């Protein structure tokens, strides 16, 4: 099975399209890397580039982008609504196929070492790559943002970076690098207008309330109907088909049905294959049987 | 959406691996064509090469293979258990994505014209490409095999080819070219040893008995358990998820459950996507949302 990893670096530039294009272009130059998406938001003054490929090439492309962003973005002048601590703000590695989160932690560390050594930028590791419990959550690492961290780094031992100098890079600030699982955004539209029912179901199935592992969920009203809106942060534990069945079961108890469901954004083939395997008891089914998969191997 | 077509030419050589390799190699030379599989059987004395790619390139690669097979295989000396009428025996085009069976009929005709003109081999069109009702079934086109057709062609108007000379090619015989939908082989293992139950369910759901459209099905005993074994010849009409639910429903009436199911061989991504869309009411879901699909576009 070909090893595939996704990387979605976030940059503190959402207004100058020429800068964003230069950053994305540097990833495209690395052969074997596919740039799947480039997005930016003016009010956030932030952009993100989604790349996919083999681990070695994705690592290399991520570094090239960070190098260009370091040259072109000056944090001393940066203003935007979204929290950030650096020109390259955060760089998550996400396993897609044939690779684990642990492998992505190794990639994070390799990238952190390169950033520290070649670009002289302080690096913090977060999520699965975190070396300290207080750095698992991105919000904790970014506390105080660029301005606040600039004051604390070097003096507060809790803000000492995991790699690189114990002071901000003059223009690029600091970087957060890490690894996490693929997140599937999945919404279920109920056949009721009563948003209270969506909220009750959400309370029942969310991981924090003792529900399904890896499920973050809220009840909303969307287009006049109640919606159970989920982030499945670990589809190997709870995939969309399992979430569907659980919500359907809870809804039934309240005499409500499911009108439709919505897989939002991209989904890895592996999640589809797992859903088919489980739902139809296709015990030996695997993604190598999917014809299109053979085309990029 | 990228247009993808599959082609699986069958050649009357299953013993000389060097010949089979030369045929497959000629397809590999065509850029943009992927050779997914090469199989052969000694007792059938027959091989088949599975290629996938864009319509233009697959057409070109199919022709290259046929040209080589015409040079290297002599039907006057050919012996094998499997019915055949030529060095290249049959060439089906199968839509995978972004392309219809009608488009594949057009490809069949283009290939037939080239074979007739450049190689001077008589060509019969079959299945969806058939121009006559008595040529829809491959068995009818191949009646009498190479030896029988050699005697009838030129004199029996029912055996007049659709393209090319009204006589056999001296060494390569004749070719059958056509278009058909992708066939999904799908088995359901019941939790009973009573093969009679599998046969009863088969009788109920097969298309011929007024059951599900595009479903060919038999009841078997496999490994001591009853199995409902299906060929889904048109997954846009009846996909594996629908077949599963229907068999499950019929089995339940007989107090029997489904132990497991088995998708045999390759399956197009589109079939997976359709099963998810239907089973989980994911009305807007489409294959462009599958991350891996983006990698070969």
TrEMBL record, chains A, B:
Q: Which InterPro entries match?
A: Formiminotransferase_C, Formiminotransferase_C_sf, Formiminotransferase_cat, Formiminotransferase_N, Formiminotransferase_N_sf, FormiminoTrfase_cat_dom_sf, FTCD
- Set out the biological process GO terms recorded for this chain's protein: L-histidine catabolic process to glutamate and formamide; L-histidine catabolic process to glutamate and formate
Q: Which SMART domains match?
A: FTCD, FTCD_N
What is its pathway?
Amino-acid degradation; L-histidine degradation into L-glutamate; L-glutamate from N-formimidoyl-L-glutamate (transferase route): step 1/1
Q: Which Gene Ontology cellular component terms are annotated?
A: cytoplasm
Task: Return the broad EC class.
Answer: transferase
Which compartments does it reside in? Cytoplasm
Name the chain's protein: glutamate formimidoyltransferase
Q: What is its EC number?
A: 2.1.2.5
* Domain Formiminotransferase N-terminal subdomain: start-end pairs: 3-181
**Principal localization?**
cytoplasm
Q: Which GO terms describe its molecular function?
A: folic acid binding; glutamate formimidoyltransferase activity
Supply the source organism for this entry. Candidatus Woesebacteria bacterium GW2011_GWB1_39_12
Identify the keywords attached in UniProt to this record, alphabetized: Cytoplasm, Folate-binding, Histidine metabolism, Transferase
Annotated ranges, domain Formiminotransferase C-terminal subdomain: 182-294
Lineage of the source organism? Bacteria, Candidatus Woeseibacteriota
Classify the source by domain of life.
Answer: Bacteria
Annotated signal peptide? none
Cross-referenced NCBIfam families, in alphabetical order? Answer: FtcD
